[in-house]
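User: I'm new to structure prediction. If I give you an amino acid sequence, what do you actually give back? Let's try with this one:
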Amino acid sequence: MTMMGISFNLPAARRMALALFASLVLASGRPPYGAFYSSHDFDPAGKSATSIRDLMNGVYTEQDREHTTAFWMRELAKLEAEAPKHADDADFQDDHAMLLYHAGKVTSAELLWKQLLKKDPDRFQTMANYGTALQSMGRYNDAAPLIEKTAAMRPEMRAGVEKLQSQMLQYMMRHRADNSYGQKHIFIASLTPVWDARKPPPKTFREVSFPVPSAQGVAELMRTFPKFGDGWLVMGMLLEHEGDYSKALTAYRLALKAGANKQNELKAYIQQFAPYAESLNPIHYAGKSVLTLFILVAGGFIGFKLWRTGRAVYDDIAETRRASAPGKDKKDKKAPDAPFKK
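Assistant: Good question. You get back a string of structure tokens that encode the predicted 3D arrangement of the chain. For your 342 residues, that looks like this:
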């Protein structure tokens, strides 16, 4: 599986693997990345949207790289200095739990999330954040009920991302139970027959009726889980369906890089799709036009300079020949004046 790499079929083996995973997380000091509803990532009210362009261009990934453990530790220290003033502020406590998680204090973060849910079992932000943290750590069975509940509470939140995350969890649990599951299915189950029936360009996914909405919801999911290769594959399919071939090609390549399950099929499809997508890219046309114009202008300038140089050389040679022609000196010299006679 893209997120875990190993599938364990025996319950005992699963428990051992998860325990080992958790111990590695605590030892490393930096848990797996996850974006949360907080003052640092997503607006809890869902008013801000992920930019697909920035997502494709790696802007968010670059920002995440800058957020090192040292960064989160500094942010945690600043927030904890204000903690006595916000003992009853649930939003503040959610931010506190998120910073504890990012700073590597996973046990403390989990304890705080549980305390918040004990006070308010239906608190959306806490369930979503705690569920995302559990999923990032590979604890899919613990995460699934929380994310299913947030999806039911706010099905339209951030273009339906909670529902997509719930589908992602179900997909990952099935793949963990059967290591070949990802080779046979797309993580959004209704897209599996669409992928299986794909045809080479120009008969692209744009001509197919898709059973899911726009790419925005998947973009929100990939903002949270940027290393989910099978999500990038779906992102590519949706962008291709919407006619954004350049971004679709980028998404397919990111899927390949992130280790999407359908590696061989994806490689073959990219080989077919890439020339077609690049030929339709306006920048490709503009680039060719600019290059052609540059060649014409440069060629004309060089040709003119060569003509000028050649003409000057020709004139110099002609002048030299005239100057050295026989009898020219006699012709040019005047006869001496005859002596004056009185």
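You can read the tokens as a compact description of the fold. Here is one thing that stands out. The radius of gyration is 35 Å.
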